[in-house]
Amino acid sequence: MKRRTVLKGAGALALGAGLAAPAWAQKKVKAGFIYVGPVGDGGWTYEHDQGRLAVEAHFGDQVETVFQESVPEGADAERAMTQMALGGADIIFATSFGYMDPVINVAAKFPKVKFEHATGFKRAENVSTYSARFYEGRAVQGLLAGRMTRTNKIGYIASFPIPEVIRGINSAYIHARKVNPDVEFSVVWVYTWFDPAKEADAANALIEQGADVVLQHTDSTAPQAAAEKAGNVYTFGQASDMAEYAPMPRISSIIDNWAPYYIRRVQAVMDGTWKSEDTWDGIGAGMVEIGEITEVVPADVRAEAEALRDAIAAGEYHPFTGPLKKQDGSAWLAEGEVADDGTLAGMNFYVEGMKGDIPS
Amino acid sequence: MLRLEKRPSPSRLWTGATPLLAVLLTMLAGGAMFALLGSDPVVAIRTIFWDPLFGEFAFYYRGQLLVKAAPLILIAIGLSLGFRAGIWNIGAEGQYIVGAIVGAAVGLAAYPTESRLIFPAMILAGAFAGWLWAMIPAILKTRFNTNEILVSLMLVYVAEAMLASVSSGLLRNPDGMGFPGSRNFKDYPAAHNAFLIEGAGVHWGVVAAMIAVIFAYVLLGRHVLGFHIRLTGEAPRAARFAGVNPSLLVVVCLGISGALAGLAGLFEVSGPAGQISIDFNSGYGFTAIIVAFLGRLHPVGILLAGLLMALTYVGGDAAASALGLPSAAIQLLQGMLLFFLLAVDVLANFRIRFGRTEAA
Known about the structure:
heterodimer; A: alpha/beta; Rossmann fold; 2 domains; six-stranded parallel beta sheet; six-stranded mixed beta sheet; 12 helices; 39% helix; 19% strand; globular; B: mainly alpha; two-stranded antiparallel sheet; 13 helices; 70% helix
């Protein structure tokens, strides 16, 4: 009761954070996770939840995790994070780009709680950002797509016209064209991360237009199901392995592996060494994994893709290496020049050869 | 044997008691569902219905109830006027989006000027845009006798496409590194719909919702327009003899509901949501339809229904994260509430008789 009276009143939010802050020795660390989709989406949110479970498995009794799924981006996200912070969370992982401003707002009210925002660019004293270099995986997919297509038409289901998605399209296109100069990409923007009905519609439309490889930057398995029904169409698992569609139509996948990062950050909170930083890891650090390339893919193509993967992992090859031009023909990267992270982080243009416009 | 006997007129006692009975039944059935999901039903029900109002962190949740309820009430009040007259505006979500876009655009166009007139101008622009968007189905109905249900609903999808377009184009934050979403109004005091009392959850949208409730109450009870609305709904033929102009009524009812929905959108985008973003709308326009009927199309009923609906959202989210419940379980609970309310409505209109049916 006494605590409630202390907490009463408007300015008490910060106080609440103070009281909820951990006494390291006695209390276990509480980690909260905010998900944009349901944990059963089989893609993006599923992999974040796997990361959460890995944290639980790794720390056992020392940690307690809470999560909330299908949190809309906006005012609701702000409330969900405040609820967790009030509930005594020590570190909160907000796992979607649209949570960016809400994270910054809530973090300002709870200076003792650590916040981790996936795929954003706004940081603060108690806000870190983290993301994966998915475009490295896209390079491998692009190579496979360029080798496997017979119609030379590749469909791409894109979510939102943000740099992360555009980067993926460019990376896949560059590497498809490298092995197959006749290849053409058609991009469908569905403006959602997770909507099985819309994703299936987009996949079917692309297949009807003659695409026989469909890449997706959305989280459900609906495009896989559509491809399976159509027959001779190849797809890739997105965010998660989606192995239930192997060996056909799913011939490989990009898997987000958040577990090592989550364990590292929770450990840092335990040790009191947590600092605000920006993490952007790829295949090399194990944050991005290439799912098994199935036997449908000829052995020499498989070896070629694996070699590309290993070269990227070892840091010998960067997927955005010149000479590269922008779509409008203007120069971007000179021979041998490698794109810097700043340009990649804000990428808002297609590379030369891509058809169509980025919606704006 | 059980049988139902129609009451000569609806029972006043049951009309008042059925909402409470529906809430009780929802708690029982919901509790059973939570128990099946492996949570303590008492704790779950308490977290949803009790804690936000009287629990440890009620100082925060009470304000959030107002934030969540205000747009629902504002929109539902407008819808209820038309619904009473048999004019079905199903597209409040679209009017809400357009009001938010245009209102926000006015504010963003003025950036970074500081003037007391900016926010009032945004309010006018938001209401006007919502009104204008509702005029499309209104004019099409009065001139060409189209169905306002279909037209207003279809315009929601048009509005959503516009929202996606402006947030990644016209209204995009120039300092946002190419990411979609407008500037945040929290960083622009002249256009920010800030809390009037910090932490209490009262912003101008809450004030507007309260004014709308009073306005609708007086309109329906005292004003000739309110009389015409009720008369048209209850006895259309009599209304025509009484000199009601049906076309004018369509224009007025759709206009008021559009303007209120536009207002709700403006208050939401400039306050709790903070910015125009692709997924800014979270279905308030559709949920408000439920709120309108839950409140029996009566202004005071809508006020209470809006708060109850907000409670199931705020409490439901709290339960989802505190007890690890799936978001689908919370949606089921909300569905149960509506279901039970409609089901026990039978008691208001019918009497239950025990025993054998007598031969008529």
